[in-house]
Amino acid sequence: MAIPKTALSQMELLVFDLDGTLVDSELDLANSVNATLEKIGRKPLSVELIASYVGQGVTVLINRSLGGGASPELVEQATESFLNHYGEHMLDSTTTYPGVREALAELDGRKMAVLTNKPVNFSRKMLAGLGLAERFVQIYGGNSFENKKPDPSGLNRLMEETQVPSSRTMMIGDSVSDVMTGRNAGAWTCGVNYGFGAPTLDEVPPDIRINDLRDLPKLLNGKS
């Protein structure tokens, strides 16, 4: 573990990624991508392949799903189609990962926020629909700032708003993008091994890695 126990006990701001960290949205994202591909005459992709494209925003997701080389017009058309479908179906199958609700309840004494590359209106709608929105002091999405993660703008804003220094802030996520966001802002980082972006954590290892979000309060409270 790369974080001293004294630092763990002093964490005041916990910033969570959304897809692959708090919620398992894999199937709904894949279904919306495939509905979009079908609409433009393309063959469907596997859920696993689409999941590997998630994490850097809608434009990257659609570009990769189209296989690269698509015209700007086609990307724009496909993106609009995806957003329309996903807006109606984002909670068909999406649910929190095991242990997430319990972990958030146990962490309730600390300031918590969400920073995701998913569009902010979808993020807030999803968390409200799952009954989790009130857990967080702020929810920011991929279009909340000029640049998406791993740019540190969002994390820096959250630290400014909560008046918590980077030494007492932790970014929690399932992908290298989340780790780099934390590093770029000077914050601590925690990677979750269960999310669909978890294989990328080997590229840039976080300060700590956990298998279950319920492990986080144990670490912060000195019980693990």
Quick structural gist:
With 224 residues, the protein is an alpha/beta fold. The protein has ten helices and eight strands.
Q: What's the count of strands?
A: 8
Tally of DSSP helical segments: 10
In the predicted model, the low-confidence regions spanning at least 5 consecutive residues are none
Proportion in helices: 40-55%
Q: Tags for this entry?
A:
single chain; 224 residues; alpha/beta; six-stranded parallel beta sheet; two-stranded antiparallel ribbon; 42% helix; elongated
SSE inventory with pairings:
Blueprint (H helix, E strand, L loop, with lengths): L4 H5 L3 E4 L6 E2 L1 H14 L7 H6 L5 H8 L6 H18 L5 E2 L3 H7 L4 E5 L4 H10 L8 E3 L12 H10 L6 E5 L2 H10 L2 E5 L15 E3 L4 H6 L4
Parallel strand pairs: 1-4, 1-6, 4-5, 6-7, 7-8
Antiparallel strand pairs: 2-3
Helix pairs in contact: 2-5, 4-5
